[in-house]
Design brief:
By secondary structure, the protein is mainly β. The chain is built from two helices and 33 strands. The strands form eight sheets. Strands 9-12-15-18-21-24-29-32 form an eight-stranded parallel sheet. The protein has a seven-stranded parallel sheet with strand order 10-13-16-19-22-25-30, with no helix packed on it. The longest helix has 11 residues. The chain is globular and about 60 Å long.
Length: 271
């Protein structure tokens, strides 16, 4: 996965918190690549189960030193992260339980918030911004003016989301700039990425079928009807770049103005 070329999966942020730092029940351990839903933590606590399994009977978490399969439960909301699109699934699940807003930064009176929002220190939401659904925005971000941000979206620290940008159901890592007149949907965007103006990520097939993407030379069904792109760290796109659904761009790659990304870019070369 391009976004994991420089960030190990266990350190990858879900809801702006590294996967390894999400809360555990006292006395529990988990697989370093497991996402455990708060719903399944509650079920394990209430049922006195000592091990949590996924639907393929793989161990996700356990109480004590070793898994105890004799006192196990099957999780319905938890899973092992094995593919890039699983990062979106974990982020969606986490943000669905964001119960209240936590506003530390500044929201302009002419911005509209519908849903729960976490806004970090020094972050600014400018006039004309509309946030719909649960969204997390990190420290020292500048959002707007005139942006549309839809849940479930998490935006890291020191990010800039520019004029007339739409972000939907995406994970954006720190120090990234999404230039004006751009669209990002159902995508994972790495650190220190810069989108030229008018960069568009497509996330929907004309026939409405699930997206497929290349994994180790084979097309794999993602199980997602909406799936945009996976963009590695330090990627720069030229203005008016168009990115096909399910495409992956390696760290440090660049595109030229007007580029059409219709296949994966697996090396830091230019298109």
């Amino acid at each position: 996965m391009p976004v994991l070329q420089t960030t190990p999966l266990e350190h990858f942020p879900v809801g702006n918190i590294p996967l390894s730092q999400h809360s555990l029940l006292p006395g529990w351990q988990k697989h370093p690549h497991a996402w455990i839903s708060v719903v399944d933590w509650t079920a394990a606590e209430q049922s006195a189960s000592l091990t949590i399994l996924d639907d393929q009977e793989r161990v996700l978490a356990w109480h004590g030193n070793e898994p105890d399969l004799a006192q196990s439960m099957t999780a319905f909301h938890s899973f092992l992260l094995t593919h890039s699109w699983d990062l979106l699934k974990a982020n969606e699940e986490y943000l669905s339980h964001l119960a209240q807003s936590n506003i530390v930064g500044e929201i302009h009176p002419n911005a509209v918030i519908e849903g729960n929002v976490s806004l970090g220190i020094g972050a600014r939401i400018l006039p004309g911004v509309f946030i719909e659904g649960n969204v997390i925005i990190g420290d020292y971000c500048k959002i707007g003016p005139n942006c549309y941000i839809r849940g479930a979206t998490s935006i890291g620290d020191h990010c800039h989301i520019g004029q007339s940008v739409e972000i939907k159901n995406s994970v954006i890592l720190s120090h990234t700039s999404i230039g004006h007149l751009s669209y990002v949907g159902d995508s994972v965007i790495g650190k220190k990425v810069n989108f030229g103006a008018g960069t568009i990520i497509s996330n929907f097939r004309h026939d409405g079928k699930n997206h497929r993407t290349m994994v180790d030379g084979c097309l794999v069904d993602t199980g997602r009807r909406k799936f945009g792109a996976i963009i590695g760290d330090h990627v720069h796109t030229g203005i008016h770049t168009s990115i096909y659904p399910g495409r992956k761009i390696a760290a440090h790659a660049t595109t030229r103005p007007g580029a059409i990304v219709n296949y994966d870019i697996s090396s830091p070369s230019s298109l």
